């Protein structure tokens, strides 16, 4: 199989990740942070190592500010619902994933209002101006994706972080498509809460994610329960990260995630992005030459896009194209990609798009096979 | 101060225990983690850092990085 659905989850996983998960299931099977016996302590150490790796990877102000979640959506919900309360206002953009959109819509029920900023591809100044024009006296949070999961549009998060600082607003970043693809420095970028999946650009197993909180950012817990500490108390403890991690964590997943982050650091984010950018540029150039194919963004440019793209074929539904690619053993995703507002913005809401996204293990011959399959589909 | 003095410093969570242990070691203090002993654990389960040497100095170092010290027991 030729796998071009790395925006959904990266595949295959590095050998080191598989080995570490396997090792943990055999050797680190005790509950971390609960027992005092040797295997429980070793498991706790392994979880702690992952926190330390994440702290270095994203420049988090403290290891205790790395909170493990089940995925990026979980982290986004924890951040937004843990911060926002009745009377607050939140700004999001029209290229958000439903992880943000549906969470913000749910918050309307408790009296949190929202405004949606229109993103202008390749024009950061205009995008920033539109976001800032929506700031109100009660704006508590700006939440935005770091890059669109449909069109690859990069958001100027560094400048938005500065804007948030100027206005005293908290900044929540959905880094689903960028963690492990673009460098992210929480402190320098003034990110209040950084939400990442473990299973995409960090090459960890599915069922892993992280919420990272900047200095001074404290949120309410969504889930209360056992933390392995202060058990006689009927009240949820306040110490991070346990206050936000009730119940047993995904130990083998987290250990695999640590191996994934180490893999990315060893390869180098810039090298990975350069590889994927070169491949997506080849795809773009090929698709652009075919008159039956419609592309929605300008030519790939690292300053404004991450290496993924969406397209459609004349007189074919995106699902049919994906299905035909599937018959050539090429895996891509079709449809709305859980981002309806982005499709409305670029005129693809009714038809969806076919999305391709290479990963570190994608080769030139994979792209060649994709082109040959597309030649046949559009013949 | 007795350099061979052994103490339990109760810190609660496993993350604080690991974080505190690493910080104390980086400051030249011998430190290990253990489950908080039952005689110290009057409010529930948790973890302690077992230190050798000046427990007050160790406790102050822990507080300086935001770890709440929930009790010290000199052995």
SS class of chain A: alpha/beta
Radius of gyration of chain A: 21 Å
Count of beta strands of chain B = 4
Give average pLDDT of chain A, whole number.
Answer: 97
Low-confidence stretches of chain A: none
Seen as an oligomer or otherwise, the chain set is heterodimer
The proportion of residues in beta strands of chain B is 25-35%
Mean pLDDT of chain B: 88
Strand order of the largest sheet of chain A: 2-8-7-6-5-3-4
Largest sheet of chain A: 7 strands, mixed
Strand order in space, largest sheet of chain B:
2-3-1-4
Q: Number of DSSP helices of chain A?
A: 11
Query: Which structural class best describes the helix and strand composition of chain B?
Result: alpha+beta
User: End-to-end distance of chain A, in Å?
Assistant: 23 Å
Helix content of chain A: 25-40%
Fraction of residues in β-strands of chain A? 5-15%
Q: What does the overall shape of chain B look like?
A: globular
What is the N-to-C order of secondary-structure elements of chain A (H for helix, E for strand)? EHHEHEHEHEHEEEHHEEHEEHEH
Tally of contiguous helical segments of chain B:
2
Helix content of chain B: 25-40%
Poorly predicted runs of chain B are none
Overview of the structural elements:
The complex is a heterodimer of chains A (379) and B (75). By secondary structure, chain A is an alpha/beta fold. Chain A has helices spanning 15-27, 38-58, 72-83, 98-107, 124-132, 157-167, 251-267, 269-289, 318-327, 340-345, 364-377; strands at 2-3, 66-69, 89-93, 113-117, 139-145, 170-174, 193-197, 209-213, 293-295, 309-313, 330-331, 333-335, 353-356. Chain A has a seven-stranded mixed sheet with strand order 2-8-7-6-5-3-4, with helices on both faces. A four-stranded antiparallel sheet of chain A has the order 9-10-13-12, with helices on one face. A two-stranded parallel ribbon of chain A has the order 1-11. Chain B has 75 residues and is α+β, with helices and mostly antiparallel strands. In chain B, 31% of the residues lie in helices and 31% in strands. Chain B has a four-stranded antiparallel sheet, covered by helices on one side. Chain B is globular, with a radius of gyration of 11 Å. At the A-B interface, helix 2 of A face helix 1 and strand 2 of B.
């Amino acid at each position: 199989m030729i796998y071009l659905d790395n925006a959904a989850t990266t595949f295959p996983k590095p050998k080191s990740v598989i080995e570490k998960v396997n090792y943990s299931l055999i050797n680190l099977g005790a509950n971390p942070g609960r027992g005092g016996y040797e295997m429980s302590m070793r498991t706790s150490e392994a979880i702690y190592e992952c926190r330390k790796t994440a702290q270095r990877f994203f420049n988090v102000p403290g290891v205790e500010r790395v909170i493990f979640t089940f995925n990026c959506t979980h982290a986004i919900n924890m951040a937004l619902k843990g911060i926002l309360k009745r009377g607050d206002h939140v700004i999001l953009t029209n290229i958000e994933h439903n992880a943000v959109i549906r969470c913000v819509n749910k918050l309307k029920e408790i009296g949190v209002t929202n405004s949606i900023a229109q993103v202008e591809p390749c024009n950061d100044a205009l995008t920033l101006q539109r976001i800032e024009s929506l700031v109100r006296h009660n704006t508590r949070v700006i939440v935005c994706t770091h890059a669109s999961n449909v069109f690859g549009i990069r958001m100027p998060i560094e400048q938005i972080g500065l804007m948030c600082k100027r206005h005293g607003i908290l900044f929540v970043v959905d880094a689903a498509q960028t963690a492990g693809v673009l460098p992210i420095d929480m402190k320098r970028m003034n990110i209040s809460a950084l939400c990442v999946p473990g299973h995409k650009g960090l090459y960890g197993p599915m069922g892993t994610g992280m919420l990272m909180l900047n200095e001074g950012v404290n949120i309410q817990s969504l889930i209360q329960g056992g933390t392995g500490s202060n058990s006689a108390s009927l009240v949820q403890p306040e110490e991070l990260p346990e206050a936000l991690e009730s119940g047993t964590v995904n130990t083998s997943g987290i250990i695999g995630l640590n191996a994934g982050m180490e893999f990315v650091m060893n390869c180098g984010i810039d090298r990975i992005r350069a590889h994927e950018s070169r491949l997506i540029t080849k795809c773009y150039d090929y698709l652009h030459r075919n008159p039956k194919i419609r592309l929605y963004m300008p030519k790939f440019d690292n300053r404004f896009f991450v290496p993924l793209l969406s397209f459609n074929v004349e007189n074919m539904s995106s699902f049919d194209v994906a299905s035909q690619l599937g018959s050539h053993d090429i895996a891509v995703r079709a449809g709305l990609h859980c981002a309806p507002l982005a499709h409305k913005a670029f005129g693809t809401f009714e038809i969806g798009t076919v999305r391709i996204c290479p990963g570190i293990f994608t080769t030139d011959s994979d792209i060649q096979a994709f082109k040959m399959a597309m030649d046949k589909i559009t013949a | 101060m007795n350099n061979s003095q052994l103490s339990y410093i109760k810190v609660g969570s496993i993350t604080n225990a690991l974080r505190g242990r690493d910080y104390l070691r980086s400051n030249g203090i011998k430190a290990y983690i253990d489950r908080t002993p039952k005689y110290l654990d009057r409010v529930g389960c948790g973890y302690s850092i077992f230190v050798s040497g000046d427990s007050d100095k160790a406790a102050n170092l822990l507080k300086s990085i935001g770890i709440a010290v929930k009790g010290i027991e000199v052995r």
